[in-house]
Amino acid sequence: MDVTWLAARLTEVSVKGIATKTAALIEKGEIPSGTHLPPVRELAQALGVSPATVSAAWSQLRRQKMVAGKGRGGVWVCGGSLTPRPLRFEQIGNYGSAIRADLAMASPDPALLPDLKTAMLQGISCPTLNSYQREAIVPALLAAIKPQWPCPAEAWLATDGGFDAMNGIIQTLFRPGDKIVIEDPTATRLLDMLDNLGAEILPLACDEEGPLPGALALLLDKHPAALIYQPRTHSATGHTLSQARSEALAAALANSTTLIIEDDGIGELSAQPLYSLGRWFPERTLHVRSFSKAYGPDLRLAVLSGPQQLVERIQSWRNFGASWTSRILQQAVAWLLQNESTQRQIAHARAVYRQRRRLLLGELEKKGIYLPDRDGLSICIPVQSEQFAMITLAARGIAVLPGERCRSGNGQFIRVSTAMLMEEDVGSIAEALALATGPL
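The structure assignment produced for this chain is given below.
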């Protein structure tokens, strides 16, 4: 791009002015996608500003996903929209009309969720209903969760689901360029959030018992701002953190100041106990539990706990928007947590999900594919080629999640949801999966 042409159009030469005007030129198509922008020093000289001013403007556009690149390779235009998008997540589910079995989303079976009629009636009995008081959490919900919470905490916050809590944490507590350690693989939407922030992702290897302590120790040498992990059943792989592994991770973290963020997305549908690192480090642990998968996605409810100062910062950020989570939904979940019939129904759901998962594992074993019986609403299957697997399965009307959506490191696999598998379909699905995996 001609530096004189661009400089003539940048009439406001502050960081904000340069970024805003350049973004407008990109959106209008006057600077097409793929265009290399002038070198920082040349543009700074033409504008009569310091190179740091131009560099900061490009950083703003980089965070907005409008430009990419830096250093000797230069900066180029890569998009024409200021609106951030969760690209990995939005690609899930777009498999066309020929799909007969959509096994991409590990969603709970609606037939196994509690009946919410009575719970919603309990919800509207909340004493502070229709108040504009910005209440962090209603007393009834706090009283219901405290006895079963896995770690001590100074403060609590109800949020609109687990990912709302995680997004609040990431948006509030971290800056672009911060190093974040996160399990590999992990939840698709967490990677989208970190990409949108502009964080540097440090993949953490895992095995059957959770994150590897040795791998974590090496990553801690890079002084990351945070560790994000799933402290119970992992949503992508189904592995479960053991007590011994939790203790080993605590030992690795003992000499660091890294913030610990626990994302318990499966919640009570996990058949395993939860070992929180907050037992050792309550002063730097944020624990998030979602109630969506066990009690109902439309309840849109999770609870976040942690140090008072950090929780208050997240609450302040929420005041830009909704400010508080519906008291009706909080009161309803409080009642569900203490209702014996509901708890029996959730135990039944866990048993059904286990049966469906094992049914598919058994059929795969008959075809020579031996996989561990883990936990959760899906199974993780190694493949020779994700692309081959996806095409092979799509040709047979089956959609699954490719591993690339939820990994930041290496390894080819597909995630297959087992939550809504019907017995009559398992045989044909297992046959298609055997063709798709290639030789293991």
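Interim note for the steering committee: The first strand starts at residue 67 and ends at 68. Residues 260 and 409 are 21 Å apart (CA to CA).
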